[in-house]
Amino acid sequence: MVSRLKDIAKQIFHNSKMVKYKTIIIVITFSIIVATIITIGCMRKRITISVDGKQKVVVTYKNTVKDVLQSNNIELSKKDKVQPSLDSQLSNNENIEIKRSIPITIKGNGKTFNIDALEGSVLEMLEYNKKDLNANGIEFDKDMDEITPALDSKLEKNQIVQIVKVKKSIVTENEPIAYDTVIEENSGLDVNYKVVKSAGINGEKQVTYEVIYKDGQEYSRTEKSAKVLVNPKNEVIIKGTTNFSVSRGGISSGRVISCSATAYSGGWGTSSGRKPARVEGGLSTIAVDPSVIPMGSKVYVEGYGYAVAADTGTAIKGNKVDLYFNSYKESCDWGLKQVNVTIIAGPGEW
């Protein structure tokens, strides 16, 4: 009897121990399951992805921005802007903001090239892409250069941005001052008579300009100051004012004849019997071909003055005249010249 009781007691003890072990195992297993569920629940995140203002909510178990975007098949270009950065760790209810770049065409420095730029103003795009601009030989000055569209304009997809390089420079140059022409009228000469008494000479001035260049080419210049270095000398022209209409022997008074003019001297008489004379400011003596200029005509010889056709000569044929001078030296100094001879009046008409 006692032995049987011992066996029963041992069986009861053994069974309670097994129950205890089973209970412990169940508790541990349940704890692991609960912990796993909690852990998985903590890893689950609700993320809002915004692309150019358009939002999309996703549920993810990924930890970084890069992994979340890849798992949602969102591809990025080199110039796209992502906030927070791709390697940032995410927590629940966080936002990922993506600003897409847009294609832009840049024209400047004789070149055309394309870039991807973030939306914003033209100025922001140029500042952000300075490296690309410099690589293409473009350096812009926002205060000087002409940029279209305007710097504060909002960029649009496939827009063309034109950059015109503007440069200002101060330039000093020497320039001529044009001479004026003064007309001295002479009623004793025919209206067809016109001769230069003294040649005009240009003066010179130093002028300072502000010159504007666009893309290396001069666009405009504005005079800032001028300084006269040499004054001009006026041209003086003698002009006849009388219309001599009388003609004789087929020769019209007032007609201008181009003649070769030689010179002679000596006190002997002339073929007309008139004593030769050289009177500056008065009437001097010349030898002519009477078939061209009638004897006794009053004429004006360019560079010589007023004279009377009072002599002839065997060598004076056609459009030739021989001018009288008071000395041999003066006649030699004259030499041979081509002059205009104006017939002022025929013989007996003055």
TrEMBL record:
One GO cellular component term: outer membrane
Cross-referenced SMART domains: G5 (SM01208)
Transmembrane segments: 21-41
Cited PANTHER family: CELL WALL-BINDING PROTEIN YOCH, RESUSCITATION-PROMOTING FACTOR RPFB
Magnesium in keyword set: no
Residues of the G5 domain: 163-243
KW ATP-binding (keyword) present: no
Name of this chain's protein: G5 domain-containing protein
InterPro entries: 3D_dom, DUF348, G5_dom, Resuscitation_pf_RpfB, RlpA-like_sf
A biological process from GO: peptidoglycan turnover
GO MF annotation terms: hydrolase activity, hydrolyzing O-glycosyl compounds
Pfam families, alphabetized: 3D (PF06725), DUF348 (PF03990), G5 (PF07501)
Keyword vocabulary terms for this entry: Membrane, Signal, Transmembrane, Transmembrane helix
Domain of life (superkingdom): Bacteria
Gene3D superfamilies named among the record's database cross-references: Resuscitation-promoting factor rpfb (2.20.230.10), RlpA-like domain (2.40.40.10)
